[in-house]
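Key result, reporting period 2: structure in, sequence out.
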């Protein structure tokens, strides 16, 4: 910033604002601006995201998958970002309410760390969501291709973001972080425009993920009420879409109206807050089916635990080595599946309406190769 070079030696920087004071505003270093709102919203969503992730890990405890590892890493990244954001919440304010002495090398350093954590969290969360779709719609060839395109596009976007952020934010040529903050404060550079381009692509990816399963779900043979319930579970992604769209709009407006240069700390604070909101929302999506299944199996059904104990000890006419499942379609009959029996296939109708279920989605401890309608699986697990 040019104003920094005009500061006389020996001036107390803590008495100076970090930017010009616009007409109608006054300097107030005690005003926290976004601190309370940012902490309130992000902490609440991070707690919800943590509950959903832990519920998914509980549901898949007996046979974890790589997608479970991804959501766990994403949760660690979200919690780390949340703790860091709360520790530096005093920086989430307008430039004229931010003492200049607070703009040390830690300011760009923490934003760089947040961008890296965001890239890992969002990429892993979105890929885990797409892997969930791949698990549910595994028989449909067109769906598999669409899902794999989404996975590779997501991976390339966020890996490139890590590279661009590292190149343009990390100091080069022996310069320190303290020197870089004075050079880049309030300036628009390539990384700013790259952020707009990335946000545009991410918004399209979020819309792609939110819309992808809807046509397939609404072609299933089930009641409209059940379709709406299942669609609502997957449509949690609308929160991520709203956050990414809002983030994109703010980035564009800050450049077009040239307001970023005068109030860059405030815009950076808003973008950081919305990024964490998107991280939490994106993390909830791949855990929503498992959360719904656990709520249905262990919470809404008060007798579920007692019935499980009875079935294990062989009471109520069911052996501990036998499991039974019933499907909602009238054309399907109860099928008894024995743990010691050979693999068997259950097939009716068009194969495009069928999926392959792993043991974790049914009982978690019986290895079976069962092909059942997508409608039956979703009705039983959501």
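The corresponding designed sequence is given below.
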């Amino acid at each position: 910033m040019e104003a920094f070079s005009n500061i006389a030696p020996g001036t107390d920087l803590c008495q100076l604002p970090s930017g010009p004071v616009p007409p109608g505003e006054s300097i107030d270093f005690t005003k926290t601006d976004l601190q309370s709102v940012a902490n309130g919203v992000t902490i609440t969503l991070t707690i919800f995201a943590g509950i959903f992730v832990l519920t998914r890990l509980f549901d898949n405890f007996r046979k974890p998958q790589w997608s479970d590892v991804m959501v766990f890493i994403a949760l660690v990244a979200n919690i780390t970002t949340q703790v860091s954001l709360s520790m530096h919440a005093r920086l989430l304010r307008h430039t004229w309410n931010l003492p200049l002495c607070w703009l040390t090398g830690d300011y760009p350093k923490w934003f760089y760390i947040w961008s890296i954590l965001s890239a890992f969290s969002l990429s892993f969360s979105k890929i885990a969501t797409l892997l969930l779709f791949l698990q549910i719609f595994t028989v449909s060839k067109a769906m598999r291709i669409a899902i794999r395109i989404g996975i590779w596009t997501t991976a390339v976007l966020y890996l490139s973001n890590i590279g661009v952020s590292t190149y343009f934010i990390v100091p080069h040529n022996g310069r320190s972080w303290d020197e870089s903050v004075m050079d880049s404060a309030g300036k628009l550079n390539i990384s700013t425009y790259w952020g707009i381009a990335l946000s545009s692509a991410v918004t399209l990816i979020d819309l792609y993920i939110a819309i992808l399963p809807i046509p397939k779900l609404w072609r299933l043979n089930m009641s409209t009420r059940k379709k709406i319930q299942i669609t609502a579970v997957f449509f949690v992604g609308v929160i991520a879409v709203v956050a990414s769209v809002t983030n994109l709009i703010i980035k564009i407006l800050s450049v077009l109206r040239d307001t970023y240069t005068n109030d860059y700390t405030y815009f950076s604070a808003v973008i950081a807050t919305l990024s964490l909101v998107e991280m939490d929302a994106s993390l909830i999506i791949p855990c929503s089916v498992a959360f719904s299944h656990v709520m249905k199996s262990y919470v809404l059904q008060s007798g579920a635990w007692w019935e499980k104990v009875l079935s294990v000890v062989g009471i109520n006419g069911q052996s501990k080595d036998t499991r039974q499942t019933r499907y909602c379609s009238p054309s399907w009959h109860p099928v008894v599946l024995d743990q010691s029996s050979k693999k068997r296939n259950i097939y009716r109708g068009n194969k495009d309406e069928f999926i392959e279920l792993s043991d974790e989605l049914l009982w978690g401890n019986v290895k079976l190769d069962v092909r059942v309608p997508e409608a039956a699986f979703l009705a039983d697990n959501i």
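The beta strands are 322-325, 335-338, 354-357, 370-373. Residues 106-136 form the longest helix (31 residues). This case is discussed further under Risks and Mitigation.
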